[in-house]
């Protein structure tokens, strides 16, 4: 299949080089825009799977640029992530799906890509099949049953986590995340593990924020989606 195409919009040359190098290491195609005007023109010419947007730029800023891009029919549903050296409240701006602080590490960038890049290219990041089979003594039926149990429980788990967060019940929230982490590890649900572990640590320090929580919600949604694909493929192979 074709590689997914990422657009990086940043007026800082060093930042553009960093993102270009880091994203190519993840086997992604990268286009660079030096300002908002160039970004809009590139979006008119082709579709992008994801856009990383600097906020403070000369000319059009990141918010104005994102608004113009979302007005294009081809990019109404394209995820746009704010990447800024200053904290940015993306929830106040519907054009953005999330925000991240610079500098962003390679591991964090990988988690972001696994969360937001659609379809099969990042499906392998949701589950580690080799580890799952090892845990289940090479029994694929057990792998599928455990995975289905996890997926069936995830909506209720999320509802509980969100409620405990809203109640600021850090002790119970930590226990809930610990339980979910155990289930994720048994199922080798790598995307969930990657998001639960840092969130669990931040809860223990009572420093959790809405961005980390939203990342977990996105990871849960993606895990459910990918598990459904595995289930459909397994059903087709059994016929």
UniProtKB/TrEMBL annotation:
It holds the Pfam family Response_reg. GO terms for molecular function: ATP binding. Residues 5-117 form the Response regulatory domain. CDD domains: REC_hyHK_CKI1_RcsC-like (cd17546). It is a multi-pass membrane protein. Residues 139-237 form the HPt domain. Keywords: ATP-binding, Cell membrane, Membrane, Nucleotide-binding, Phosphoprotein, Transmembrane, Transmembrane helix, Two-component regulatory system. GO terms for biological process: phosphorelay signal transduction system. It is found in: Cell membrane. The keyword Oxidoreductase does not apply. Its main location: membrane. One of its GO terms (cellular component) is plasma membrane. This is Response regulatory domain-containing protein. It comes from hydrothermal vent metagenome. The lineage of its organism: unclassified sequences, metagenomes, ecological metagenomes.
């Amino acid at each position: 299949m074709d590689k997914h195409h990422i657009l990086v919009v940043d007026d800082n040359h060093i930042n553009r080089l960093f993102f270009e190098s880091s994203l190519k290491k993840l086997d992604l195609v990268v286009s660079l825009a030096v300002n908002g005007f160039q970004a809009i023109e590139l979006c008119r010419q082709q579709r992008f799977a994801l856009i990383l947007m600097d906020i403070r730029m000369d000319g059009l800023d990141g918010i104005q640029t994102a608004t113009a891009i979302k007005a294009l029919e081809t990019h109404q549903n394209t995820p746009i992530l704010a990447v800024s050296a200053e904290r940015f409240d993306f929830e106040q701006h519907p054009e953005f799906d999330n925000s991240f602080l610079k500098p962003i590490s390679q591991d964090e960038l990988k988690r972001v890509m696994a969360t937001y890049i659609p379809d099969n290219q990042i499906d392998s990041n949701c589950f580690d099949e080799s580890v799952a089979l090892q845990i289940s003594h090479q029994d694929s039926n057990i792998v599928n049953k455990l995975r289905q149990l996890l997926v069936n429980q995830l909506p209720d788990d999320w509802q509980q986590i969100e409620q405990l967060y809203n109640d600021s019940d850090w002790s119970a929230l930590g226990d809930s995340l610990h339980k979910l982490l155990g289930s994720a590890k048994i199922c080798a649900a790598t995307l969930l593990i990657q998001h639960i572990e840092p969130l669990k640590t931040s809860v223990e320090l009572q420093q959790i924020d809405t961005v980390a929580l939203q990342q977990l919600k996105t990871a849960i949604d993606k895990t459910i989606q990918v598990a459904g694909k595995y289930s459909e493929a397994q059903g087709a192979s059994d016929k």
